[in-house]
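User: Can you write out an input/output pair for a complex, sequences first and structure second?

Assistant: Here is one pair. Inputs:
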Amino acid sequence: MYATINEANAAVIAEIRRARPRLVDVRPAGACIPVLAEGAVLMHAGPPIEWDAMTGPMKGAVLGACLFEGWSKTTEEAEVFAATNVRFVPCHDNSAVGPMGGITSANMPVLVVKNAEQGNVAYCNLNEGIGKVMRFGAFEGEVQTRLAWMRDVLAPVLSAALKTKSDGIDLTALMAQAITMGDEFHQRNIAASALLMKALAADVAAGDASREDKEAVLRFLERTDQFFLNVAMAHCKCVMDAGHAVGEGSIVTAMTRNGRDFGIRVAGLGDRWFTAPVNTPVGLFFTGYSQADANPDIGDSAITETFGIGGAAMIAAPGVTRFVGSGGFSDALEISEQMREIYVETNTTLQIPTWDFQGACLGLDVRRVVETGITPVINTGIAHRLPGVGQVGAGTVRPPLACFEQALEALAATRAAAA
Amino acid sequence: MYATINEANAAVIAEIRRARPRLVDVRPAGACIPVLAEGAVLMHAGPPIEWDAMTGPMKGAVLGACLFEGWSKTTEEAEVFAATNVRFVPCHDNSAVGPMGGITSANMPVLVVKNAEQGNVAYCNLNEGIGKVMRFGAFEGEVQTRLAWMRDVLAPVLSAALKTKSDGIDLTALMAQAITMGDEFHQRNIAASALLMKALAADVAAGDASREDKEAVLRFLERTDQFFLNVAMAHCKCVMDAGHAVGEGSIVTAMTRNGRDFGIRVAGLGDRWFTAPVNTPVGLFFTGYSQADANPDIGDSAITETFGIGGAAMIAAPGVTRFVGSGGFSDALEISEQMREIYVETNTTLQIPTWDFQGACLGLDVRRVVETGITPVINTGIAHRLPGVGQVGAGTVRPPLACFEQALEALAATRAAAA
């Protein structure tokens, strides 16, 4: 055991810095995540939650998964099946993350991100693009068609392209470049998505798929500017799990939301979730929608802020500041400067030119959050609160302080018990 | 005739703003630039210059073109042929631009950029990548192999991909996006190159070329982060020619260098060049090279600064500031703020997030340069002064003030004569 929390935190941060996640494959979720092979099981975003307590977008996505897996033929059947037959498990308990609803089933493909240093693996489903998409709660028609195409065409083509590389794609290097190009990796991934496509296009073209399929895959990547979000999430999960393995200290290693509860995990507190009711994001809404349509905070994507990008790296992406309704360049600077007070270190790999080449935030410390009362800023998409609608806007949200207060108390109790 | 120079300048700037260049094709230079079909003719960068007066990198590129066109079989033969048989004409006199030596021959492919509003067309040869490349004066072996591949594979594949689009690629929109991603379009084009590749990859994959050729083209684009430089140059030439057509005022519509002379053109002074001896760029050098190896300033690429990007947009690309040895974020800001004093307007299309969304500089005014004594900052590659070596570094350089002084005198004389 480390003598002080600071020493434990230094060890956690050293592991985070040492991690080198590589995107190595795209595979069916059921082939790499054991729990999904155990029958009617779905992974979801956030800390544990059951069907009855889920909000609209997660329920919509569950219905979509029941239809996609062939467990139900109609929406009505799916509602009954979801309520009675499906077992729900958090992505986070299975080395995985998923944006918004985070619903992932055995036959959905996942990105496979392997840590070349510590060896752990993280998974995330694939970004579906914008509009009517399952992660925001839409589930019928084009959603199903797209999910089937992603399973049958996109995934195998990307898998083949990745396998032509000796050891996949170095995400640390790619993200180091993309953060200099205005990505903060939560609401803005346009540079990283383009760089990933650049790294894959020649291999896709050289592959054995039909000309039509190769064109369709590249067209999808061309149009999906947030494709890298899910890659970034798997990267962050992979890195934070490597830090979490230290098993001590006050660094937050997961922040996530299920639409009802915000949950955090802390390196020194094992797999316990510290939860409190989520807030509702505030931001800008697409035409025809307003704040009244916004679902409460949802999704595993806050793993980006856990790592220190996303909202914490707002200064890297002043373009995003406007998109989420948070002002201009000076506002972006102010947010990142405030975040520096609750993260104990900077990320020497992710240098931000617009921050005079200062590194991104690293090491969110429960103690600092409670001492300062400053909670992390999370950039987020906003889902409609009803199932079947989809994304209605983008904005920012903060976690409830109570999660951090509970964790700090638990940490104190743990160390008192050990002393 | 406009009543005042300010009114004339407003008209020039309105035409620049109205221009909408689109990348529509890649064709053999001889098929679209008439002078190149008149026998042993080569286009070069800068104001007019003859063989004897050329510096090393331009001479090297001339030898390369003589070999490439089959006019000579050996370097020795090429030296004789260049000195006695070749007619040299400036790119700028033929709706074209070319980086560094700018040497362009009939069988080299050129980018075809058509202005959807005013209808004029501009051309630029294709970027060869880095290392031993013709534009920096290397001319044997791999240079010739690559030039032949660009002619036989790259150009037809890109041409076919561009033709699948109804009206090519909207460069105004692409550059508006890329400037928010840290490109200033002279020394940094990594975002624009990735976005261009993103726009072309699916069409390349769908094309009729062999799988090997399609892979090779996409691999080349993957590795050529400055591919868009030549596109940006053609864009700028197209836009500035549209402004030049107004035929009045004190806005600079071309700045270029041939290794000996720096030349400028002004909207109100027709096709006259106002020249003075070039300076030599100062910057950072690749391992093994130093300032003593630097060729004097050369290339048509200063058309980017003529338009108001490149060095004038240093604040958009703080990453470049380090690459050219000009400091950090605050230095980049200082350079762009200084440039605002000599450009009369801002470019509402090219908003720079790191400048609090201020537009790039627009409308370089001869009067302001002479009044303030501030000359434009030009970001530039640095060629070795001897033929056959290639690029040795990158840095910044300023034009001689004398060009602007001469132009201002000529402008005064013109208006006095008209009064």
